[in-house]
Amino acid sequence: MNKKISVVATNACGWPNLTKLKNGxxxxxxxxxxxxxxxxxxxxxxxxxxxxxxxxKRGMVAKHPKGGNRMHLAVGMANNGDLLCFSSGFYxxxxxxxxxxxxxxSRSTDRGKTWKEDSSPDVPKVIQSAIPFxxxxxxxxKKLAYSSYCSKGSGKPSESWLVSSEDDGKSWNxxxxxxxxxxxxxxxxxxxxxxxxxxxxxxxxxxVKLCEFSLNNKKRWKEKGxxxxxxxxxxxxxxxxxxxxxxxxxxxNRGLMGIxxxxxxxxxxxxxxxxxxxxxxxxxxDIGYPSTTAVDKEGTLLTAFYTDYESTLKKKPNLxxxxxxRWSLKDWLHPTILGSISDGKQLKL
Length: 349
Fold this sequence. Notes:
Blueprint: E1 4-10, E2 14-20, E3 26-31, E4 43-47, E5 56-62, E6 72-77, E7 83-88, E8 90-93, E9 96-100, E10 104-108, E11 116-118, E12 131-138, E13 144-150, E14 159-165, E15 174-178, E16 184-191, E17 195-201, E18 208-214, E19 220-226, E20 232-239, E21 245-253, E22 256-264, E23 275-279, E24 287-294, E25 300-307, E26 321-328, H1 329-332, H2 335-338
Parallel strand pairs: 6-12
Antiparallel strand pairs: 1-26, 2-3, 3-4, 4-5, 6-7, 7-10, 8-9, 10-11, 12-13, 13-14, 14-15, 16-17, 17-18, 18-19, 20-21, 21-22, 22-23, 24-25, 25-26
């Protein structure tokens, strides 16, 4: 399979977040303004067909307050099938930051067509001024969790928390701090062996590290080491099987602006060498924030990201866009390709 690029939205900076629906369609939630957060704008969702193609606008997830925007997001599905989106944003004055516009929760009961906003969700006080990120994950029963962080400003460490609910998202009363104060923009993945993994963007040099939360070990977080080099961030974790885990992440190193990937076949304990699944071109300056979901059980994947320049698009490549890429993991597991990035032995999924 050759990878296929599709346009989800034009003139949108993005931070896209994919959610696979129960009927096989994929929902993409994103910020709809062509700015890195310093313009008024809303959170919008678009929906694809069951192949991850043919995007069309679906609904307004969170409408901006007067003088502000809704741009940060954590999205997922409750155990009862409702779609949930935590969001935050800035107040803007003359294209400059003028204040924090609050921590909201939007809920949809009709696959993203309509959303009900709650501007005062039941979250701990410290989270009310925090920024949500990544996926809202199910932890079994009526338990849900998402990550949120507070940035203390340039040169100062950030703080991150896991925020959890035990009533399917009605209230979010428990928090657990992780990342050793060098953390923000963390995405979560839950395993049946009572572990939660977090791929965490670090604050100092902006690499991604892995943190692990064990419910069997007095609910303590452990630092498991780096997953990427500096300026390669943030990341998404996609569980492909009981033990197979895919990491996708932005690469913002000059000379290579792209999307990278790594694979673990032992539930995150060890990781195969990285490879680059997409390059944007030398003119790209603002890219990344991949979100990945499996389209089928044969290794077909869908990765959404945003960019201010896309070399494969002939018509106006230098526009902000949210894009999706349909690609196959099997293309990267061919023995002749694998031999150049690993030990020459084909991976067993």
